[in-house]
Specification:
With 157 residues, the protein is mainly alpha-helical. The protein has 7 helices and 2 strands. The protein is globular, with a radius of gyration of 19 Å.
Amino acid sequence: RISAREASRLDRTPEGELLTDIVVETFGLNGAFLAAGDMLTRDLGLSSARWQVLASADGAERTVADIARRMGLRRQSVQRTVNALLYDGFVVLRSNPNHRRAKLIEPTGKGRSALEETFRRQSEWANAIARDLSTDDLKRAGQLMAAIKARLERRTA
């Protein structure tokens, strides 16, 4: 008797099996990226989610819905993050000339300072992680991820 997981493998092509392995690794990589981001910014009062939303609002006139679309997240989760950023003084809400109820999110001085420090730390971190990886391998990995993402987006559109 075989498990459901093993049965599903019987239907996969070798390429489908490799893509499944990439998906599993990507989930783990995403978790590792989020944990690293949290460690980089914890003392600044930011989590990975907070600094991603804060960075999305920096230098652009964006609403919660704009940020959610841009990041591929649910509006409600972005709204919770914006509320936390607002409460802690990292952002303010401004009136939106294009929409009466959808406010524009703008980083405060505190938010911009935290972002500047976050980007400085992230640069050091990225350089250290990438130090012994080849430029060609990194480019190919990025291209492959973009191609897979584009196929997923086309299939779900």
